[in-house]
């Protein structure tokens, strides 16, 4: 009897875990606010989530990129510069794995913002993209006004980049996962292989979630 | 006859002892260079060249091309010490022209990291000594 009870417990625990996993949604990060909305004549309180603000940058092809270019897309964002000797090569070695997995998935994009736009011109970014072995419109390397990039970094809840005395740039090595509503749904250490695997799994989870929402 | 055999055995045993002693001293030196070199590699080289010397696409050259390492053996300490600026290198059949930062470290450290690199990632080129590095650094252009 005990044995059966134990077995039942294991089965239940396992199915509970499995269930939890399948139904679990990614958290929504950032500050949140409330607003009153009228639904069917009744006033109800709705949650307003922090979203990524509007922006305008140029990608490696010289195309102008704004938040509207990402309509209907899930995307991963990071901050880097092409002459970065420290963490950027590790980050982009990992990001290449994300790219390899999703380059043929139309609603997933990668945005790498240069925090050194003075050196990282469109031409430099294109050369970097070519050497990195990326093409098409899955992975954009973006540059624009430095101030705008630095402010944007803070919107992604990463540390505001800084320039040190030696004129090197200090920045977080985070990968940020953004959903189709421009909400932050995940934050990953881009220098860590395991964290990158978690990001890839979470992108799949987020796609399943949003695709179900659309179906409903 | 017996004495001769004993002498022969004694001589042969002695020879073996000397051989093993030499070998173990060599391998001890190799291990010292290799282990210290691994640490320096992790601190200074791994970000760009990768944990397995795989490099990064066409941006950072891999360290797995034995032919390249053998051909440039004399130059390797110069590469580490002075860095590289826009020099075209053909590694594994790909062309690289990225900048590599200079490393302000002692010749013995260069010897250690080169011993690690040239005996890892499928390479097997033996120990690189501090004396060799010091001599090669003098010939850097």
Automatic annotation (TrEMBL), chain A:
Keyword Membrane: no
InterPro entries for this protein: SCO1/SenC, Thioredoxin-like_sf, Thioredoxin_domain
Gene Ontology terms, MF aspect: metal ion binding
PROSITE patterns: THIOREDOXIN_2
Signal peptide location: 1-18
Family: Belongs to the SCO1/2 family.
Protein name: SCO family protein
Organism: Mucilaginibacter terrenus
TrEMBL record, chain B:
Record keywords: Heme, Iron, Metal-binding, Signal
Domain of life: Bacteria
Signal peptide interval: 1-21
InterPro entries for this protein: Cyt_c-like_dom, Cyt_c-like_dom_sf, Cytochrome_c-type_DH
Gene Ontology MF terms: electron transfer activity; heme binding; metal ion binding
PANTHER family per the UniProt record, alphabetical: BLL4482 PROTEIN, BLL4482 PROTEIN-RELATED
Protein name, entry field: Cytochrome c
Native organism taxonomy: Bacteria, Pseudomonadati, Bacteroidota, Sphingobacteriia, Sphingobacteriales
